[in-house]
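Researcher: Next entry in the queue.
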Amino acid sequence: MTIRKNWSLVGAMLGACLLFGGCTEKKPAEQPSAPKQSMIEVIAPSGSNSSFVIRTRSAEFELGPAGGVQAFLTKSGKRLSIDSALSGESSEAVQANGKEVSDFTLQGSAKVGEATGKLGATGKRIEVTGRSASTGLERTVAVEVYDDFPNIAVTSTTYKNSASSEIKLDRIATQQHWLDASLADPAAKHYQMWSFQGSSLDWGKDEILPLSATFKQQNVMAAPVNQGQGGGIPVNAFWTKEVGLAIGHLETLPLVLSMPVQAKQDQRIQTSIQIEKPGTESAKTECSGLRNRLVRLGISVQRYAEADDGHDPEAEGTRHSLGDAGRSVV
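Model: Structure for this entry, 330 residues:
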């Protein structure tokens, strides 16, 4: 796909609102109550820390100047995570005109405000924009976190061509993460974790499995694989006995993309959401959910399903199985 001067690739989460009305007896107008205030704290960069920190009652999300997001579960005063991005590793990546574009630098100041999506009445939003000097591409990453879903960050990425010539996008990756089980358990090997991978690759193939030092799986979504099979739940989840992390896309359309999982040479596990040769129909695929949880998989995937329709069952003390989550998403 080529991007001309004013074309942008936008990531957004779709929502629906149903309004009900009818004939009822008029009642005296009530005084409007004061709007609810978000309890989420946004901490600006200071000193040697160049990242924004979004702090909820149970998690923290760090947004770096290049748009990378890391997640931490907070428990008993500690930050737990298997998210191990090193210097130079970002959760966002793009290939244009046959080359990786990695020279994005922050433009201006970050924008901090109230969340505007459909996942709750209150929340916080941070938006940062970077520009590539070599290509003229501008990339804006927005992160929203809601009080009703304190362990989920919803990200949206926009690419815009600010140069005078056309740019061909070859591949876009979002929610890239390098996972390391030894961060949660120093005795564990880097790859030593369990996973749920929601793609439907083959009849009888396990979706829940432990990872190995040589593991590799492409996880194509919404496209025929293995003689016509395909589809699945667009979620990859990873966990140890201490903490877990999951990524997924919240679009309501069956978008063609891949969510690869691979053990790298240093034995860390890399995962992401990728779109090859993005076209105009892919303009909304950059919305993804990132969560960091201390619960078993069934609850984690169910929380993904509830985020998809904006309802939080845990707030009502309910619990659901993985099967329920599957029916909710599909």
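Model: The two ends are 30 Å apart (CA to CA).
Researcher: Noted, moving on.
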